[in-house]
Specification:
Layout (H helix, E strand, L loop, with lengths): L8 H11 L1 E4 L5 H8 L8 E6 L6 E2 L1 E5 L5 H24 L10 H10 L8 E6 L3 E5 L10 E6 L7 E3 L2 E7 L2 E7 L6 E5 L2 E5 L5 E10 L2 E12 L5
Antiparallel strand pairs: 1-11, 2-4, 3-6, 4-5, 5-14, 6-13, 7-11, 7-14, 8-14, 9-10, 9-13, 12-13
Length: 232
């Protein structure tokens, strides 16, 4: 397992530019994954529980953590944000957006909270056989950070089968789908909404991204979602 600081962030940036996502292998070790997944049945860690079928989101459920976040999640959220903010600022410049993100997560969250976005968004998702997550975007208010992270807490082939992470990108009527297999402890950094891509003739164009999870064929699956903007 390599720390966030030891990662090749130039290569991560190139992957995000090219595909809208980047893999961080073995960000968490198996013991950390099991400890986080074991939090799911508890009630004292969370502000709300969402049953996907009730809202047309798919099948399965997830819970949003309450503040204060568990120490490991809080550390991950701060460290990842600090590394991703420069890339997010470059993307905004390439898209012609006059919006810059501060260098620290605390400063960005202060901006969210002033706008009424005060509810924490890190979450754990739980899937069982037959469950899935429809393609979607995690938008919670006017202030949005353009990247987020999913970390697989379960072991494919042992804990579950199926249940692959899926992303689509759409631009000018074309759509591309990506299936992104993850191992236990792997993290995927990916686009929340739109990313810049080279135009067909010149300049940059916007590519809209969505993500979801394919149907679980057996077992159960837990995933940690680390979203950087808070919600209304």
């Amino acid at each position: 397992m390599h720390s966030i600081e030891e990662r090749d962030w130039e290569a991560i940036g190139r992957s995000l530019d090219r595909h809208g996502n980047a893999l961080l292998p073995e960000l968490l070790n198996p013991a950390q994954c099991r400890a986080l997944a074991a939090l799911y049945p508890r009630e004292d860690c969370y502000r709300s529980r969402v049953v996907m079928a009730r809202h047309g989101f798919g099948r399965g459920e997830y819970k949003y953590f309450s503040y204060p976040l568990p120490a490991l999640i809080d550390t991950l959220r701060h460290a990842l944000y600090a590394r991703l903010a420069p890339l997010a600022n470059r993307w905004n410049r390439e898209l012609g957006m006059d919006l810059q993100y501060p260098g620290t997560l605390d400063a960005f969250l202060a901006r969210c909270h002033l706008a009424g976005q005060r509810r924490p968004t890190p979450l754990i998702l739980e899937y069982h056989e037959g469950d899935y997550n429809c393609l979607h975007q995690d938008l919670y208010g006017d202030h949005m950070f353009p990247l987020q992270t999913a970390i697989l807490l379960s072991e494919p082939g042992r804990d579950f089968t199926g249940g692959e992470f899926v992303m689509t990108e759409t631009s000018s009527g074309e759509q591309i789908a990506q299936v992104l297999p993850l191992r236990q402890g792997d993290a995927l950094v990916f686009t929340v909404n739109q990313r810049p891509a080279p135009g067909r003739r010149s300049g940059m164009r916007k590519v809209a991204m969505r993500h979801g999870v394919s149907r679980l064929l057996s077992g159960h699956r837990h995933t940690l979602g680390v979203i950087f903007h808070d919600a209304r």
